Amino acid sequence: MQVIIVDDEPKAITLITTYLEHFTGFELVATFRNGLKALEYLNTHTVDVIFLDINMPHLSGLSLSKMISPNTAIVFTTAYSEHAVESYTVNTTDYLLKPISLERFSKCITKLLEANNKEDYKGSNDTVQPETIFIKSGLQTHQLRLEEIEYLQKDGNYMNYYVSGKKIMARQSISEALNSLPDNFIQIQKSYIVNFTKIDAINTDLVIIGSHQIPIGSQFKANLVNQMK
């Protein structure tokens, strides 16, 4: 995969360049210390991955990310964790908080490879169906598309699944629900599980999904922050 690095800090560019040398399959084709120069390059060149600093003069990383091809995987890099939520409003593969360790960078490389493999698989098989889950509710069994599930709420012995404006009730515990769902579903309170990809905003005490404000339990904050990294 062809890679570019955009960062106004020379040391940051050097560090990522050094880290990339540990992994095969990645070719560093250019580096830039200015978002405008990077945009000029991207207007005439196609790359697979961009390591993109958020805080840069003239053109920020977030602004640049909205101007480039959606086929380019974006990995944001920054020293400021408060930008994490905003960075997920664009098509972001990963978010690296400086100083970046080689261990954390390795996990990012794994994500990039997995995403690339999924795209290759989709391209070779147009009949792939969306991933689904079967939920028994009373006498009926519902097939739910995982990408449409917004959040889950525990209500006594039942679990309410909120899916595209509908509520489906299943007799489940929190642990049973979590065991049946992929990793992007995380528990943020003793009675709530949310689909991380559906989050619109996060503040100190709440997760916001559409018009719903869901409280964050203090014992679950660390897990939520870790998911944002």
Order of helices and strands: EHEHEHEHEHEEEEEHEEEEEH
User: Strand fraction band?
Assistant: 25-35%
The percent range for helix content is 25-40%
Count structural domains.
2
From the 3D coordinates, which CATH architecture of the largest domain would you assign? 3-Layer(aba) Sandwich
Radius of gyration in whole Å, from Cα? 20 Å
Number of helices: 7
Model regions low in confidence, pLDDT < 50 over at least 5 residues: 124-129
> What is the total tally of β strands?
15
Q: Structural class from helices and strands?
A: alpha/beta
Distance from N terminus to C terminus (CA atoms, Å) equals 23 Å
Strand order of the largest sheet: 2-1-3-4-5
Fourth-level CATH superfamily of the largest domain = Response regulator
Largest sheet descriptor: 5 strands, parallel
* CATH topology heading of the largest domain: Rossmann fold
Mean pLDDT: 86
- How would the global form be characterised? elongated
> What would CATH call the class of the largest domain?
Alpha Beta
Give an account of the 3D structure.
By secondary structure, the chain is α/β, with parallel strands linked by helices. The chain folds into two domains: 2-124, Response regulator (Rossmann fold), CATH 3.40.50.2300; 132-228, Beta Barrel (OB fold (Dihydrolipoamide Acetyltransferase, E2P)), CATH 2.40.50. It contains seven helices and 15 strands. The strands form four sheets. Strands 2-1-3-4-5 form a five-stranded parallel sheet. The longest helix has 23 residues, at 102-124. The radius of gyration is 20 Å and the shape is elongated. The protein starts with a strand and ends with a helix. The model is unreliable at 124-129 (pLDDT under 50).
